[in-house]
Write a structure and sequence with these properties.
Layout: H1 7-14, H2 28-38, E1 51-55, H3 57-74, H4 97-113, H5 121-129, E2 139-146, H6 151-170, E3 174-178, H7 185-192, E4 198-207, H8 225-228
Antiparallel strand pairs: 1-2, 2-4, 3-4
Helix pairs in contact: 1-6, 2-6, 3-7
Bound molecules: flavin mononucleotide (FMN).
Flavin mononucleotide binds next to β3.
């Protein structure tokens, strides 16, 4: 038999995306600790392709205000009218098959929890906008990579991101990784002073979960092992 209550198993299994946070600040020393432990992530030839903009206090608020203003300017208008276009495809151009179903399910489940009807575009937009306030988390993380890096470095990046979420969880903190920021890379780059080669990867909200918030009770499914494993014995 094997141990099922190991701290890592618990941290990995209990991590989930949190979309409502308490205003309670995160101690700077704890944040630094989480980031330094997470930076032990492996990377091909130890390139360590990650760079993190850590936003708290007024710095966080300035970014939230700048991006929310742009969100509000174009909300409800056709996407073709918005100058805010992602620099890379995080998702497939068109969702298909099981991926389409899974994407729909998470959206509907979240909206159902919050009592948002399938046609209620205004409340859906309001919920989406919460991304751009880091769901009220006191810490916002904006991750960038040098755009000259190869696909492999993006693989390394995922390991770094996952480390942050797991280490944070083990310290009683919660997170929400956020691709939502990618559309606003120009606004963000200007606000945070990105270098010429600096490309936005994603954002992340980090803080203490509001356990009373309905959205934080969302439980997501995973496919069973036989659906993802191909055995060759
Ligand atoms: C890189 C990445 C980007 C994501 N972007 C968003 C986002 O912009 N907004 C959001 O609410 N959730 C976002 N998510 C969270 C996913 O919806 C979530 O991980 C998935 O539904 C599984 O749920 P769980 O994290 O609670 O296990 C993102 C997840 C990842 C890994």
């Amino acid at each position: 038999m094997f141990e099922t209550s190991l701290a890592t198993d618990v941290a990995v299994s209990s991590r989930h995306s949190v979309r409502a946070f308490l205003p309670k600040p995160v101690e700077q020393a704890l944040l630094d600790h989480i980031l330094s432990v997470s930076a032990r992530a492996p990377s091909g030839t130890n390139l360590q392709p990650w760079r993190v903009h850590v936003l708290t206090g007024a710095g966080r608020q300035r970014l939230v205000d700048a991006v929310c203003a742009e969100f509000d300017r174009y909300v409800g208008r056709p996407p073709s009218e918005s100058p805010h276009v992602a620099e890379y495809d995080y998702y497939p151009r068109e969702f298909f098959g099981v991926y389409k179903d899974r994407r729909r399910k998470i959206g509907f489940d979240l909206y159902a929890l919050l009592g948002i009807g399938k046609e209620d575009k205004a409340r859906m937009a309001h919920q989406h906008r919460r991304n751009y306030a880091f769901f009220d988390a006191p810490v916002g993380l904006i991750f960038t990579i040098d755009r000259r890096m190869g696909k492999g470095s993006w693989l390394d990046y995922g390991m770094f991101l996952q480390n942050i979420m797991i280490v944070a969880k083990a310290h009683g903190l919660d997170t929400c990784p956020q691709a939502a920021w990618v559309e606003y890379h120009r606004v963000i780059g200007k606000q945070l002073g990105f270098g010429e080669q600096e490309q936005l990867v994603c954002g992340m909200a980090l803080g203490y979960a509001d356990s009373a918030a309905l959205e934080n009770t969302l439980v997501t499914e995973r496919v069973s092992l036989p659906e993802l494993v191909v055995r060759h014995d």
